[in-house]
Amino acid sequence: MILKQIPEDFIVKEIPGFEEMNGSYSIFLLKKTNYTTEKAIQTICDSLHIDRKRVGYAGIKDKKAITSQYISIYKIKKEKVRALALKDIELEHVSNSKKPISLGNLEGNSFGIIIRDLDKNAKINTNKKIKNYFDEQRFSKNNVEIGRAILKKDFKKAVDLVLEKKGDYEEKVHAFLDNHPNNYIGALRKVPHKILLLFVHSYQSHIFNKTIKKINSQKNIKIPLVGFGTEYKDDNVRRIIKEILKKDNISERDFVISSMPDLSCEGEERDFYVEPKDLMVSKLEKDDLNKGKYKVRISFSLSKGAYATNVVKHFFNRNI
Q: What is the pLDDT of residues 257-294, one digit of tens each?
């Protein structure tokens, strides 16, 4: 099984959740190919010569894919945006709003996926319950480790791990440290805020995955994404999460980050199971990219925060 052999094999369309009204924020539909969301946003900001903080989005989309999502830009003329000519990035003005688009401002996502390199008798199991795991895109290189270091207030280690990622912001972090040695909080501030939040969220996601792996439930119960305000409704869930946190020498109160308060996380809840809606599965057909193999087309929609790759892996009995 090959997933995302080419970007055209993985089509993502965001289902919006923002209110359309007159306001200072211009809403654009961003279509990108083979870009991370943050890299695409930074490319747009550089081309418009505007501060990164003026642009908001609701969710991070896959890189090796063709994705469509909504972004907001504060006080920008739509004609200026229309004049941009960027490779593999398209922007269409759709409305205005009084508020910026921010993380979570979406209903969900719809997917059109081609699975390749299948045998002629490949079986697709769509009838079982699917645990709502976070998939590998959430974690990337060092994401969990950076989040853990931030929670432990070991900001030097967090910076060292960020630089190992060799991300789009590495030069800015290095340049800051050259002029401000040992100011590791300042160095972290050179990383886009949504990416810093992603590091902490990745650690939360890591705890969530380890928790639901140890639980069997026939009901779609709620499981905490642990934070400083987490209240446990189930003693077994509480015991499992507490044991995982103890091994990392972390407590719920560590999610209060006083020196970087905008990264503090109160916590929330997430469904134990994910349920694909509007599922359609095609018949097997010959794979034009892999000789002697077959492909199948699958489409469905998911609520926000759920991972299509996780769903596909379960369809084909692949371990997460």
A: 999 999 999 999 999 999 999 999 999 999 999 999 99
Number of helices (H) and strands (E), helices first, in the chain? 9, 14
Residues annotated catalytic, as ranges: 62
State the fold for domain 18-104. Answer: Alpha-Beta Plaits (3.30.70)
Q: 50-57: which pairs have CB atoms within 8 A and are 24 or more residues apart?
A: 50/76, 52/192, 53/193, 56/25, 56/100, 56/101, 56/102, 57/30, 57/101, 57/103, 57/194
Residue 69: closest CA among 108, 23, 19: 108
Which residues, other chains included, contact 65 with Cβ-Cβ below 8 Å and sequence gap of 6+? 4, 7, 9, 10, 11, 12, 33, 34
Q: How many CB atoms lie within 10 A of CB 198?
A: 21
For residue 114, what are the contacts with CB-CB under 8 A and spacing of at least 6?
5, 8, 9, 10, 295, 296, 297, 298
Distance CA 162, CA 169 (A): 9
> Based on C-alpha coordinates, what's the Rg of the chain?
21
The residue extents of the domains of the chain are: 18-104, 136-271
CA–CA gap between residue 81 and residue 176 (Å, rounded): 30
Name residues whose C-beta falls within 8 Å of residue 16's C-beta, 6 or more positions apart in sequence: 58, 70, 105, 106, 107
What φ, ψ does residue 45 adopt, rounded to 5°?
A: -60, -45
pLDDT > 70? residue 156: yes
CA distances from 191 to 47, 85, 199, 256, 272 (A): 19, 26, 11, 20, 32
Residue 95 has pLDDT above 60, yes or no: yes
